[in-house]
Design brief:
The protein has 616 residues and is α+β, with helices and mostly antiparallel strands. The chain has 25 helices and 13 strands. The longest helix is centred in the first third of the chain and has 41 residues, at 2-42.
């Protein structure tokens, strides 16, 4: 009996304690909400932007609240993830409210999570800059969802290619599933997209080589580094036992060159400290995303390292190293870097950091020196794809580096980085699907390093909105017409550009050519391009009005002749008295411009004598 009473008392105490804690939690969240609300009310900087966001995502229940669910979906469409480090304050505030107010009707509607206006403003205030850029199309890829749709199509296209074989020189790589296929994108503004097997860890292998080179250049300077390793494509296999004419490895992207650059990174430190330094650098390059180390691959690399040991001894024999080397330790350090693990997701951030000049897109941290990144991209462009480097540079025109695990880091400078992963390799050691996607990407998008932005009309440029593209082309067309650049006009004609396109004021290329007196442009537009001769601008003026106003009689005559030949009614201002026509019907074949009748008693001024008086 006593035990039952004690149990009842204990249960009563627990109930009271729970109620107190619950009450305390509610009080805490109410205080937090009030603080967020006050922050939103006191906000002045960019308050007009916050007001527009509130209107844009107003809840459908007409309560005046802001639909946070739709707001987060819009950020996701723009490429920003909720895990983005730049949105950490907003994410924490939303998570706190969700956790403590899961059943509070003040925060929920039929279509998702909703905040009142002041709470919403307080939640987003610390991250308003990146939010505003994302939702106004001010990031590097304005219509990011369109790019994602194209990448999904290319993913499915390349997935069908099941050719190639996985690397077999060590058993750990041979065990990987050749059907794995993933693509991850990270733009220089931190926009993210992934599809496929993007969470599968893989060792980075030779994609560590450009990073080692960039670290060495930042540490020692490019002049010092290139006193021990060259810059030229070798024209040989990536692991061939050969040096250049200066007895140096040809470049840092082949095995001999990568072993050399590894030896230059913190050479006076213990190997454990050197590894920690490089590991932390990679951690910053990935923006804190997944990074690991595969000890089994490392041990297998050491066991199958005969060729790399031969390269190291060959270089030491030719006195290539800057100082006495413990070759075993140097090669261990090189193998450790090749055995670092990443996923498509984290590797794409590394590629995005290279595309962004060494600044991590999702953290904003400057990890690598801009000059070191520039040199690295140059070498990736010329030497990054093993024995396929020359053809890849020709066909794709972009910096890239591949590894025998099946990864390719593709860099589109100042735009984005991609990580492509598929273990099935071609005869050169590059991912079959990865190389195919690179080719398809450049075929579809205006990304090739030597693509002419104005002349590659059939390619897509995702860096601009469709309106910007149209405005840019109209500007180029009108500028060429005003400048009398017939070559440019002919080029635009061959590109099948709409030559009747007008600016905001409704003025066409024919308007400007007529006003500026470029008769050769007018003739080409009328006779070769059949543009509309009587197009009206916002003031109701046709090209012939501009030609007459500017005093270009030859162009006026040419335009009126085209009116007649086209069966278009001639404007009243050009009827007899101003202009005398041989025949006034619509079948007239010619038009003659006549002089205005002179007043009686006047004498024509001699054009050669500007000072001659007018005699009345």
């Amino acid at each position: 009996m006593q035990t039952v009473v004690e149990d009842q008392l204990l249960a009563s105490k627990r109930s009271k304690l729970t109620r107190r804690r619950s009450s305390g939690n509610l009080g805490d969240i109410e205080k937090k909400l009030e603080q967020i609300r006050q922050n939103g009310q006191n906000r002045h900087t960019l308050s007009h932007v916050e007001d527009k966001l509130c209107e844009m995502f107003r809840a459908s229940d007409k309560s005046g609240r802001v639909n946070v669910t739709k707001f987060l979906e819009a950020l996701a469409l723009a490429g920003l993830r909720q895990t983005d480090p730049r949105l950490v304050e907003m994410r924490r505030a939303i998570a706190s409210i969700q956790a403590n107010c899961a059943s509070d009707v003040r925060f929920w509607a039929s279509d998702g999570l909703c905040f009142d206006e002041d709470v919403f403003k307080g939640v987003i205030m610390d991250n308003i800059d990146i939010i505003h850029k994302a939702l106004t199309g001010d990031l590097v890829i304005p219509h990011f969802e369109s790019l994602c749709e194209h990448l999904e199509e290319l993913y499915e296209l390349c997935e069908k290619d099941d050719s190639g074989k996985v690397a077999s020189y060590i058993p750990q790589l041979e065990r990987f599933d050749p059907s794995l296929w993933g693509i991850s994108v990270c733009t220089v503004d931190g926009q993210r997209y992934s599809i496929g097997d993007v969470s599968v860890p893989f060792t980075i292998q030779s994609t560590s080589k450009p990073i080692s080179y960039a670290i060495a250049c930042a540490e020692k300077g490019p002049e010092y580094v290139h006193s021990f390793v060259g810059q030229e494509p070798s024209g040989r296999s990536f692991n061939e036992l050969v040096l250049d004419n200066s007895l140096k490895p040809h470049n840092p992207m082949i095995n001999a060159g990568a072993i050399m650059t590894s030896s230059l990174i913190k050479p006076t430190m213990a190997i454990a400290d050197r590894f920690d330094f490089v590991f932390q650098t990679y951690r910053r390059l990935t923006g804190g995303e997944y990074l690991g180390f595969n000890n089994a691959v490392y041990l297998s690399e050491r066991q199958a390292a005969d060729r790399n040991f031969a390269l190291a001894y060959f270089m030491r024999e030719n006195k290539c190293f800057p100082h006495v080397q413990d070759l075993g330790e140097t090669l261990d350090f090189y193998f450790q870097m090749c055995s670092l693990e990443a996923t498509c997701e984290s590797a794409s951030v590394i590629a995005g950091t290279l595309a962004n000049g060494g600044i991590c897109p999702i953290t904003g941290e400057a990890v690598l020196e801009p000059s070191a990144v520039r040199n690295t991209l140059c070498l990736m462009h010329s030497c990054g794809m093993y024995d396929y480097s020359g053809q890849f540079a020709f066909k794709c025109g972009l910096p890239a580096k591949s590894g025998v695990s099946g990864v390719i880091l593709l860099v589109i400078p100042n735009v984005m980085g991609l990580a492509l992963y598929s273990p099935a390799l071609d005869r050169c050691g590059n991912s079959v699907r990865g190389v195919k996607l690179c080719k398809e990407l450049v075929y579809r998008f205006n990304f090739h390093h030597f693509d002419n932005v104005s002349a590659s009309g059939e390619k897509i440029d995702p860096r601009k909105t469709s309106n910007e593209k149209r405005a840019d082309m109209v500007h180029r067309l009108l500028f060429a017409a005003a400048a009398g650049d017939l070559t440019a006009i002919k080029r635009y004609s061959l590109m099948e550009m709409h030559l009747e396109a007008a600016d905001y004021d409704g003025r066409t290329a024919l308007h400007l050519a007529a006003a500026e007196g470029h008769v050769h442009i007018v003739r080409f537009l009328l006779q070769k391009c059949s543009v509309l001769v009587d197009a009206k601008d916002r003031w109701g003026s046709a090209p012939v009005d501009d030609a007459q106003l500017a005093g270009h009689e030859d162009i006026t005559k040419l335009l009126l002749k085209h009116y007649v030949e086209s069966g278009i009614t001639i404007p009243d201002s050009f009827q007899p008295g101003e202009v005398k026509l041989n025949n006034l019907n619509s079948k007239m074949k010619d038009t003659v411009i006549t002089e205005k009748p002179k007043k009686q008693g006047t004498k024509e001024r001699n054009s050669s004598d500007e000072n001659a008086p007018v005699v009345k």
